[in-house]
Design brief:
alpha+beta
């Protein structure tokens, strides 16, 4: 059950804090609600500058029709390299933990538990390294995110890393993101998946099921607690849904992003190629989203009682189109 998954993850967090206590000099970057670097992001100043990041009407319509929008240029090669440098400082906590490693909401060196199908999955790196922190404020991401959420102000939910090593990289089984997020209401969310390597079918690229965001108004059940079983999800579909279950591979180039709806079914197959497949994910919701649980929303975050607006240290407001007018 989802509650069982939450309890397992809460236990994992406690173990993480015990194993990686904060070291001297560790800074919690969730306390800083603006970029901390000076040369990583573009800095648009005029409405014309901001307008360069605007999606076309055709792109917005494609998103609403299909539940996703792909191959949006977001990062330069130099920016990707800086994120990979950050990634190297947090990827091997058993041998070289980051001073702030304990600030992760979750850190799974291999969530599958199978050494032949390795999936590094983490949440909370925005609190730990400067470039993963600053990417939250990337205008190429935020302008598009606001447009795809009906031009609403964009607030941060949480980040993720999905890293598959060459030859024995694991899968991410089919799912809908909002199945894991029903503790927040209303459903006004958006996910941005950013490729840190070229993504091919061979190295386990992201796949979407076009139109699946229209199947139901509520999310389907979680069928796989740790993303390892690609065959589980189709078994719960209706015959009509199974007939429409036609995975479309997203052949993203390094630095490109795919945006998707919270009910869009997506997943990715194992990486048996000679190339790594690393991606960072930014999850947003529209300003005004509230808690719908008495439990912690994320491990280490204070409880927001049901009905409480999500804001403050862990859910910063990133972009309001009224403050940065786009022509």
């Amino acid at each position: 059950s989802l509650r069982h998954r939450q309890l397992v993850r809460m236990a994992s967090k406690q173990k993480l804090l015990d194993k990686y206590p904060l070291q001297p000099g560790a800074n919690d970057l969730s306390l800083v609600h603006h970029p901390v670097t000076s040369d990583f992001l573009p800095t648009p100043k005029t409405s014309s500058d901001w307008a360069k990041f605007k999606l076309s009407d055709e792109q917005i319509q494609f998103y609403h029709d299909n539940g996703y929008l792909t191959k949006i240029p977001v990062l330069t090669e130099a920016q990707v390299d800086k994120l990979k440098d950050d990634l190297a400082t947090i990827s091997n906590p058993d041998t070289n933990p980051h001073p702030a490693q304990g600030l992760f909401y979750e850190f799974w060196s291999n969530e599958s538990g199978d050494p032949t199908n390795v999936l590094l999955h983490a949440l909370g790196h925005w609190r730990v390294t400067p470039h993963f922190h600053d990417i939250l404020w990337h205008p190429a991401v935020l302008v598009a995110a606001s447009q795809l959420m009906d031009n609403k102000p964009v607030r941060f939910w949480h980040d993720q890393l999905f890293c598959k090593p060459p030859h024995y990289g694991g899968c991410v089984s089919w799912h809908q993101d909002y199945s894991y997020w029903t503790r927040t209401v209303p459903m006004a969310h958006l996910t941005v998946h950013i490729a840190l390597d070229d993504q091919m079918v061979e190295n386990g690229c992201l796949h979407y099921i076009p139109g699946s965001h229209k199947w139901t108004s509520k999310p389907l059940p979680i069928v796989d607690q740790h993303f390892g079983d690609m065959d589980a999800f189709p078994k719960i579909l209706t015959p009509e849904q199974r007939d429409q279950f036609r995975p479309a591979p997203m052949l993203l180039k390094k630095g490109e992003a795919a945006f998707h709806h919270p009910l869009t079914v997506h997943g990715s197959f194992a990486n048996k190629s000679e190339f790594p497949r690393r991606a960072c994910v930014l999850n947003f919701f529209a300003d005004g989203t509230a808690s719908d649980t008495n439990d912690q929303l994320l491990d280490g975050v204070p409880v927001y009682p049901p009905g409480a607006k999500l804001e403050g240290q862990f859910f910063p407001l990133l972009y309001d189109p009224k403050d940065t007018p786009v022509e």
